Amino acid sequence: MSAIWFAHRILIALVLAWIVATIVFMALHMVPGDPAELLLSTGGTSPDPATVAELREKLGLNQPILVQYGSFLAGLLRADLGNSLVDDYPVLSEIALRLPRTLELIFAGTLLAIAIGVPAGVYAALHRGGRFDRIASGVTALLLAIPVFVVGTLLVLLFAQTLRLMPAGGFTPLTQDPVLHLKLLTLPAIAIGKGLAAVLFRMTRASMLDALANDYVRTARAKGLAPGRVLFVHVLRNALNPVVTVLGLQMGTLLGGTVLVEYVFNWPGLSTPLLRAVEARDYPMVVGIVLTISVLFLLINLIVELIHALLDPRVSAP
């Protein structure tokens, strides 16, 4: 792997993170409404203009937009996202508390999707046109068509309300009760991983069929190599490249899908403070959470590019 290629990818990720931060900051400040006035409004009554002006000065909202933007960038360089306008709680502390829960949900759903989608796709490709291939293709089409919040609701009705095998929702720390924690994690992970499992199945199946049709596979078989060696060394390794790429992109989209899943299952991740912050025009909290999600998306794609380069050294060749 070329060091220049790696440095170039890091630089691109940093530039994209800055662009995203700028867009989010500017977009929020273009939304109509005065955060100070919204914070002071109670019961539908208009607050005192003097009080609003005092709060705007305290929050720095009376400064020119470029000055606020400069202060915002300086805070990012210091790893300081500011305080929430609602409760004056540090944004970074709130994110540090809730981000591990969202990441746990995403990775649990991803692992579940990989464990189901990839082996099923390989088996379907090796038995193309068979009963399993036809049934699995139909099931994946159905899974892709059903929205994630509908799946979540159905899972709650079936496993929590009807069969009473799983709790309906909530959160318990792993250190407090590992068994209950895993039970509470299972249904949200299934809900968020169902679409990814369907995508991985289709991509793995298509990549395997394409790899199986290549000349080097026929040559390997003609040489008398064991079927397992042909499958794992010559077919699966080459078929995994597009699968890994799609996996990285889909993991990024899961960051957005967790909002609905966390809401349905009452999972205390980033969705709750994000929705509350958008409603209250809490600029620091919205920018901090959106920027965190964006950076995670860029990081995931960077990791995918590194794995892709390891699987295919031509990608990082100068």
TrEMBL record:
BP GO terms, sorted:
transmembrane transport
The family database entries (Gene3D superfamilies) matched by this protein are listed as: MetI-like
Q: Name one Pfam family in it.
A: BPD_transp_1
Q: Which domain of life is it from?
A: Bacteria
Q: How does it sit in the membrane?
A: Multi-pass membrane protein
Predominant location category: membrane
Where would I find the ABC transmembrane type-1 domain in this sequence?
99-308
What stretch or stretches form a coiled coil here?
Answer: none
| The keyword Transmembrane helix appears for this protein | yes
Where in the cell is the protein located?
Cell membrane
For the keyword Repeat, the answer is no
For this record, an example GO cellular component is: plasma membrane
Concerning InterPro entries, the annotation shows:
BPD_transp_1_N, MetI-like, MetI-like_sf
Name the keywords, alphabetized. Cell membrane, Membrane, Transmembrane, Transmembrane helix, Transport
Q: What PROSITE patterns is this protein classified in?
A: ABC_TM1
Q: Which residues cross the membrane?
A: 12-31, 105-126, 138-160, 180-201, 239-265, 285-304
Q: Which family does it belong to?
A: Belongs to the binding-protein-dependent transport system permease family.
Protein name, entry field: Glutathione ABC transporter permease GsiC
